[in-house]
Design a protein that fits this description.
The chain is an alpha/beta fold and 477 residues long. The protein folds into 2 domains: 19-274, NAD(P)-binding Rossmann-like Domain (Rossmann fold, 3-Layer(aba) Sandwich); 279-476, Orthogonal Bundle (N-(1-d-carboxylethyl)-l-norvaline Dehydrogenase, domain 2), CATH 1.10.1040. Helix content is 47%, strand content 13%. The chain has helices spanning 28-44, 63-70, 107-112, 147-161, 181-195, 200-209, 253-263, 278-301, 307-311, 314-328, 337-351, 360-364, 367-374, 376-384, 390-405, 414-423, 430-438, 446-449, 452-468, 470-476; strands at 19-24, 51-55, 75-83, 86-94, 97-101, 121-124, 171-174, 211-218, 239-241, 246-250, 271-274. It has an 8-stranded mixed β-sheet, sandwiched between helices. Strands 4-3-9 form a 3-stranded mixed β-sheet. Strand 6 (121-124), helix 4 (147-161) and strand 7 (171-174) form a beta-alpha-beta unit. The chain is globular, with a radius of gyration of 23 Å. The N and C termini lie far apart (53 Å).
Length: 477
Amino acid sequence: MENKPLLSRSLVSCYDASVKVLQFGTGAFLKGFVNAIIEDINLANPGEEMGVCAVKLRQGNSQQIDQINAQQGLFSLQIRGIAQGKIIDEIRIISCQQYALSPYDDEAAYWALSQLPDLKWIVSNSTEAGIAYHPEDTSSERLGSGFPAKLTQLLYKRWQYFHGEASRAVSILCCELIDDNSHQLLALMTRYAREWQLPEEFIYWLSNECCYANTLVDRIVPGKPVTSAPLGYIDNELIEAEPYYLWAIECRGPLRDQLQRMLQRVKQHNVVLCDDLTPFRTRKVRVLNGGHTSTVAVSLLAGVALVRDAMNDADLSAFMASLLRNEVAATLQDQGEDEIAVYVADILDRFKNPYLAHAWQSILMNSISKTVARLLPTISDSVSAGNLPRYLLTGLAALLVLYRDHPQWVNDSSESCETLHILLAAGFDAESVSACLVSQKVFNDTDLASQSNVCEYIASQALAIQSDGVRKVIQDL
């Protein structure tokens, strides 16, 4: 077997850059999305390159940090799919990431990030559950357990180190799929700062000198490819992504001007600067993300592991298409019937991408909070219009069955899972489903919980899935 060298900066031609971007999250998505966009900006603006430091959000798996740093931050991005009728299959090396660290393994190195002289940007992807208040975070001195607390602490140290200079403030772009993501983060950081009795001057700097832009992200990044073209080197960080991407950023004033200058030399990009994210967010969250979350449990219970395989399965593809075309699209007609129909068709084609091995198991992670953000508003709008969205409710029933009967597959909040198991311990009926919907630790939706026809339908579908199997249930639909 031929010995190949490990990918490193001495092996390939690439640039080094001072760290100007802190990236909270070390998973595949930020690498295949934000890092790829930063790479294009850097290549278009030589001499002004932005280096990235990736910060681990969760404790454990320290080998991931070692693996990133062994390659000096470099990784290969394999872009595969169909764009404008053409097959795309290419590999590029991303150079902007310089290194990664874990605050849990090297707390001193984390605090040292506050002193980075060129730091200008912070991006994050802590999932829908990440921008949340943690009552155990009671001090600015002890490393916070949640992302908002950790960032508040880091920025406070930065404010202290640079004596409150306005020029050392940062711009924050959140990629979490929640409404007003960056503004929600600011609200939590301000809350911590006041609870910790930090100086009012710091709170002013945090709220007024730092900039916050709500953003919406759209790219399928499954992670490590199952198969790839031979490389002339070893790359343990190789990931794949589809060709399509959209980054919609809600911004005004100097921040918008700065982003426009950064992007003006990039020949082809799909970064949209806008005044209002609402239509972008609603469409993407309900169709793309909602399609995933409503079908993940159905597919896993049917024994199908990959999204592309589900789209080649007659039962599952019919379930997904009917759900999106007939139920989800009906709640988006204010954006134009033809426009939504085209968008749904594009999403179904993206799901069929034969190159991407997008595992339903990875999509399943944190499905309780994803359901709250991605499915329940669609279901509520449908019910309010006098409809019973049978496909969406069947997807929710399948999720409850999977969480109750197959805990070995679940990767979610332990508190939410424990509560759900207690509420469904005796089995499925309208009362137990209603209890899950109304519980603040599960779905926290009192309006849907009060709809007896909704709760009865979910319960009946869950029982049918348990007795007849999910495939028979969706065939009956």
